[in-house]
Fold:
Amino acid sequence: MKASEIKKGIVIDVEGASVFINELQVQTASSRSGNTLYKVRGRNVVTRQKFQASFKGDEVVQTVDFERRAVQFLYQDADGCTFMDRDTYEQYVFDLDALEAERPYLIDGLEGICALVVDGNAVGIELPATVILQVVDCAPAMKGSSASSRNKPATTNTGLVVLVPEYLAPDDTIKVNTLTGEFMARM
Structure:
């Protein structure tokens, strides 16, 4: 597979090591003859070490076969986040820093989470496209202060800070996109 086809959440083989991709950044060249660079960040599946590399768009990258297993979020403690496989009831524990980007979206009873399993080891999780969160704290709305729509920061029950429309108040529930972290709708 070409580097231009790399997506967040896949596992690639780099020099014999399986790497789970957490983040992907595309950098296009400013000149016509320049190549597009694909900067990836991830973790080594076995050693859990951080990984960072850049690939040109036409470079060939080897992928590693993995399976998606439906899991349920159980709890978070000092050791990490614990998930349970919905079919086998096997438990997977992830370090807190391994799920740094996903933790603000994890709530009790969240449906649609998948664990990515490579050679029997869970290497990461895949969140549903959207989650429903509750607004805990936000600035009060100022009526009549502007003709255009304005946004204000709001803190959710998981600690995530989201820009929301001015009319929202504490205790409102909102739908948030897990890929971009943006407000989608009031529930």
Q: What stands out?
A: The mean pLDDT is 85. The first strand starts at residue 11 and ends at 14.
